[in-house]
C-alpha cells in the first residue's frame, strides 16, 4: 500500500529544502562570489564617467565634471564612423548567423544517413569552441597576401593577391564571414532540433495529397520552425552593439581602423592606450544602457511572439 506523505508546514518546508539542497548551494557559492567581484563591484567605477579622472588622484580625489565627458564624446571626429561600423558588422553577423544555419539545417535534414549527419554536425560545431586567439592566427596565415592558401588558389586562376586583413574595404567582410563560419554550427544544431519536433504524419498527409517537395517545405517545414527562428532573431537584438571585440582585436590593425573599429575596440584604445579613462567609461556606460534597453525589449518581443520567458 502506498504510504501517505506527511504534511510539512510552509516555513519548515523551506528550511527542509534549504537543508537538503545545501550542497548544491555550496557549489553555486564560488560562481556567485566570482560574479559579485568581477561584475557588480566594478560598477562603482561608473562614477569615472562623470569625473575628470586621473590615476594619481583616484576616484575619490578626481574632480566632478558632470556630463562634460558625454558632450566631449559626441564631438570626437570618428565616433560616428565607429557607431556605423559597430551596427553594420553586428547586423550583418545577425542576418548571416540566421540564414546560414537555417539553410544548412534544412539541407542536412534531408540526408537519411544518420551517421553522416552526426559526423557533419560534430565537424561544423567544433569551431564554436575555439578561441579567437587561436583562430586569428589560423586566418592570418590562410589570408596572407604572400603565401596564404586563399591567395595561392586565386593565383592559379590569374587573380592578383589581396591583402584581406590590410584592406579597409575587405576587412569588414572578412570579419562577418569568419564569424559566421565559426558560429553557424551552433545554430544548425538548434534548428535541426526544431525540425525533428515536426510531426512526420504531416509530411505523409502532404504526400498523399500530392504536395511537391517545395510545397512541403513552404507549408510544413518553414512554419514548423518559425517560432524558433523568431525567438533567435529577437534575442539577438539585445547584442546588436556587441560586434565581437575578441575577433576584431586579434585581427585588425591601424590600416583598417576606418572600417573595422567598433565601440569595444574604440573604448579599449581610449582607456588603455590613450589613458582617457573618463571618456572610455562614458562610452561603456552609454553602450551598457542601450544594451540593457534592447535586451528588455527583445525579451518582451520574445514573450509576445513566441511566449518565451526566462522567469
TrEMBL record:
<keyword id="KW-0813">Transport</keyword>
<feature type="transmembrane region" description="Helical">
    <location>
        <begin position="21"/>
        <end position="50"/>
    </location>
</feature>
<keyword id="KW-0472">Membrane</keyword>
<protein>
    <submittedName>
        <fullName>Protein lplB</fullName>
    </submittedName>
</protein>
<feature type="transmembrane region" description="Helical">
    <location>
        <begin position="275"/>
        <end position="299"/>
    </location>
</feature>
<keyword id="KW-1133">Transmembrane helix</keyword>
<feature type="transmembrane region" description="Helical">
    <location>
        <begin position="184"/>
        <end position="203"/>
    </location>
</feature>
<comment type="similarity">
    <text>Belongs to the binding-protein-dependent transport system permease family.</text>
</comment>
<keyword id="KW-0812">Transmembrane</keyword>
<keyword id="KW-1003">Cell membrane</keyword>
<feature type="transmembrane region" description="Helical">
    <location>
        <begin position="87"/>
        <end position="108"/>
    </location>
</feature>
<dbReference type="InterPro" id="IPR051393">
    <property type="entry name" value="ABC_transporter_permease"/>
</dbReference>
<dbReference type="InterPro" id="IPR035906">
    <property type="entry name" value="MetI-like_sf"/>
</dbReference>
<feature type="transmembrane region" description="Helical">
    <location>
        <begin position="224"/>
        <end position="245"/>
    </location>
</feature>
<feature type="transmembrane region" description="Helical">
    <location>
        <begin position="120"/>
        <end position="140"/>
    </location>
</feature>
<dbReference type="Pfam" id="PF00528">
    <property type="entry name" value="BPD_transp_1"/>
</dbReference>
<dbReference type="GO" id="GO:0055085">
    <property type="term" value="P:transmembrane transport"/>
</dbReference>
<dbReference type="InterPro" id="IPR000515">
    <property type="entry name" value="MetI-like"/>
</dbReference>
<dbReference type="GO" id="GO:0005886">
    <property type="term" value="C:plasma membrane"/>
</dbReference>
Amino acid at each position: 500500500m502506498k504510504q501517505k506523505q506527511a504534511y510539512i508546514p510552509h516555513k519548515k518546508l523551506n528550511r527542509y529544502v534549504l537543508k537538503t539542497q545545501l550542497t548544491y548551494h555550496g557549489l553555486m557559492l564560488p560562481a556567485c562570489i566570482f560574479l559579485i567581484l568581477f561584475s557588480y563591484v566594478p560598477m562603482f567605477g561608473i562614477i569615472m564617467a562623470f569625473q575628470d579622472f586621473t590615476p594619481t588622484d583616484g576616484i575619490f580625489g578626481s574632480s566632478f565634471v558632470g556630463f562634460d565627458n558625454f558632450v566631449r564624446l559626441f564631438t570626437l571626429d570618428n565616433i560616428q564612423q565607429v557607431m556605423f561600423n559597430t551596427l553594420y558588422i553586428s547586423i550583418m553577423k545577425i542576418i548571416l548567423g540566421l540564414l546560414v544555419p537555417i539553410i544548412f539545417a534544412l539541407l542536412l535534414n534531408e540526408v537519411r544517413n544518420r551517421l553522416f549527419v552526426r559526423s557533419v554536425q560534430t565537424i561544423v560545431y567544433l569551431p564554436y569552441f575555439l578561441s579567437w586567439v587561436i583562430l586569428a592566427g589560423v586566418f592570418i596565415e590562410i589570408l596572407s597576401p604572400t603565401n596564404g592558401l586563399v591567395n595561392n588558389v586565386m593565383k592559379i586562376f590569374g587573380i592578383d593577391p589581396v591583402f584581406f586583413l590590410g584592406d579597409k574595404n575587405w576587412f569588414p567582410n572578412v570579419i562577418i564571414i569568419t564569424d559566421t563560419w565559426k558560429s553557424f554550427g551552433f545554430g544548425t544544431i538548434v534548428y535541426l532540433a526544431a525540425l525533428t519536433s515536426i510531426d512526420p504524419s504531416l509530411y505523409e498527409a502532404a504526400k498523399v495529397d500530392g504536395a511537391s517537395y517545395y510545397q512541403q517545405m513552404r507549408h510544413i517545414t518553414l512554419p514548423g520552425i518559425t517560432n524558433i527562428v523568431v525567438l533567435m532573431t529577437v534575442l539577438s537584438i539585445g547584442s546588436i552593439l556587441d560586434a565581437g571585440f575578441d575577433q576584431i582585436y586579434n585581427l585588425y590593425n591601424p590600416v583598417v581602423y576606418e572600417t573595422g573599429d567598433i565601440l569595444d575596440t574604440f573604448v579599449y584604445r581610449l582607456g588603455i592606450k590613450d589613458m582617457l579613462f573618463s571618456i572610455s567609461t562614458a562610452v561603456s556606460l552609454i553602450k551598457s544602457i542601450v544594451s540593457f534597453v534592447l535586451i528588455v525589449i527583445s525579451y518582451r518581443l520574445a514573450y509576445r511572439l513566441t511566449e518565451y520567458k526566462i522567469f
